[in-house]
């Protein structure tokens, strides 16, 4: 267990170094972007593929997140999250490896180039940000099953799709990355860097 934990920490540290290099190369030391959208740096989606496992991430703005949740019968959650200042990603994992894959959100980080790296928000944190009222408990119930907050096992041939919620940063660099050091195949960690380009929406 200790060796596994040490390996995971070393993997995360390595990904952070990669992220630092990527954003240093993009000139993130300049002034940040406060009002932004995120697009994949390459191709239509930010993706990673190795050993038959495909990992993809899509950034959603408030309107896209609302529609995504409504389409899945989570209207109360869509409404409840609207006033909360969040950065939202849809994460998809397709398992063609023939082995069980575990996705652990505790090994995922969002690096934006300003301030500390961000970890996915827990149910408890999101609950505290929700408006007071009778529907608050219903929103918490709808979070479960759609928001990735605990480790999930993806069986061979299956696909997992859930959303990650981060606190929305006040500003970002030109390059933003989602770091994965929480993807395990037969107990062994796969590490991935999914890169996004920040598009300014400021006038």
What is this structure, in a nutshell?
By secondary structure, this protein is of the alpha+beta class. The chain has helices spanning 2-25, 62-71, 75-81, 123-129, 136-143; strands at residues 36-40, 46-50, 53-60, 86-95, 101-103, 108-111, 152-154, 159-167, 175-185, 188-200.
- What is the annotated CATH architecture? Sandwich
- Over all CA atoms, what is the radius of gyration? 17 Å
Helical coverage, percent range:
25-40%
Structural class by sheet pairing and helices: alpha+beta
Counted up, domains total 1
Low-confidence stretches: 1-10, 25-29
Give me the number of helical elements.
5
Order of helices and strands: HEEEHHEEEHHEEEE
What is the residue-averaged pLDDT? 84
**Major sheet description:** 6 strands, antiparallel
Q: In oligomeric terms, what are we looking at?
A: single chain
């Amino acid at each position: 267990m200790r060796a596994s934990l040490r390996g995971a920490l070393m993997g995360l540290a390595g990904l952070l170094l990669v992220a630092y290099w990527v954003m240093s190369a993009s000139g993130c030391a300049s002034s940040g972007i406060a009002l932004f959208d995120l697009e994949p740096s390459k191709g239509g989606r930010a993706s990673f593929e190795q050993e038959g496992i495909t990992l993809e991430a899509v950034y959603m703005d408030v309107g896209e997140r609302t529609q995504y949740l409504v389409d899945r019968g989570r209207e109360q959650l869509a409404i409840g999250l609207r006033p909360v200042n969040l950065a939202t990603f849809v994460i998809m994992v397709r398992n063609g490896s023939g082995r069980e894959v575990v996705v652990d959100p505790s090994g995922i980080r969002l690096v934006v180039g300003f301030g500390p790296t961000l970890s996915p928000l827990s149910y408890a944190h999101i609950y505290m940000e929700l408006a007071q009222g009778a529907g608050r408990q219903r929103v918490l119930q709808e979070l479960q099953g759609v928001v990735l907050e605990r480790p999930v096992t993806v069986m061979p041939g299956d696909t997992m799709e859930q959303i990650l919620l981060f606190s929305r940063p006040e500003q970002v660099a030109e390059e933003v990355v989602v770091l994965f050091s929480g993807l395990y195949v037969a107990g062994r960690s796969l590490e991935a860097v999914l890169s996004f380009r920040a598009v300014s929406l400021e006038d």
